[in-house]
Predict the 3D structure of the following.
Amino acid sequence: LSPFPRGLTLVEGEYQDTLLARRKTIREAWERFGCSLNAFKAMAQLLKLCDRSFTAKHVQSIFALAKRPTPECRASRGRPGLSYEEFCEALTRLALVWRRTAPSDGESRDFPPQP
């Protein structure tokens, strides 16, 4: 269903290195923005990732793809947010998808300047 396999945090490379190097920052971001879809969308807007080619619908899709499916036989009283592992997965997908949705001229886009 998704263009990227699950477990991106376990694959060696640039994304895993970044996740490991920034554990404390990512944990703080998870505590603040991993609790709901609206909070996750707010994070993307605060990071200035949303524009005409990368919208809140893209962020919503990434949030949904990062959640692990639960079997129907279990009582689903789980929390609406993401677990820490799911949040790391969502951040990795966010970086991959945002980077690939470059403007139509074929160039890769740079990350927006952060305060």
